[in-house]
Design a protein that fits this description.
alpha+beta; outer membrane lipoprotein receptor (LolB), chain A; globular; 23% helix
Length: 267
Amino acid sequence: MTLQLRRSLAVASLVGLLLSSCAPPPRPGELTSFATHYRSERTRREQSLQSAELEMVVRLEGRATGRLPGLLVSGTIAGPQKLRLRAGWMLGTALDLVAIEDSVRAWLPTEHAVLEVGGLAEVLQQPQPVALMIRALSAGWDPPASAWLAASVESTQVILGWREGADSLSMRVDGASRPLELRITRGDRLVSIQYAGWRTVNGLDWPTRMELTEREGWLRLRTELQALRSNRRLAEDSFVLRTPPDAERLDWQQLRERLRVQGEGTP
């Protein structure tokens, strides 16, 4: 398998599924106002992604991909259900992916192939998978009121836990109400998302460095935000993916098999 295809499939695997403060944590009696501030900031980030463009560097490694060079990825978002990612490298486009609600189409130009997945929510057993990807990028996790009532304060952090369907979630939040880590557990599977850096963009705190790891070592994803432009008027064809009629068609199982073969062939 070519390095170009490894890059393309690695970024496509984002479908399968896409930081800290010196402020003191709230005292137990202050958690109500702390939760209100958290929700306000989360909502502001969510609203910013109703129409936005971003650029980030993505690095991937793991059994699925081996260790790959960084890719420059540009994204177009119409939250919460539309996302387009274009990954480039020195010779051009490695991947152009459009995800809408629970369907995905991706163009892999170096292999002249198209990935087409419908019913992604059922495939991943995860409702609203595109919204979940956008939520991860913005640290837009939304604990229920019961999680805040049961929250604990440890050292400089607030610790919360709750359930969403078949998933158990736990989150660490810093004293400025910014997520530091989100852990999702389903059965014996654990996915960890760490937010290793934040900065102010257009007057709003944004996660600038994110690291997603899967416990079994299948994938480790690191992103670094380079630019974010919110409240932009998106072109009407922003989420229209045009592909050659003679391109090879891949489905989800074929993608998984190619990733498996690549993983077995990686030292």
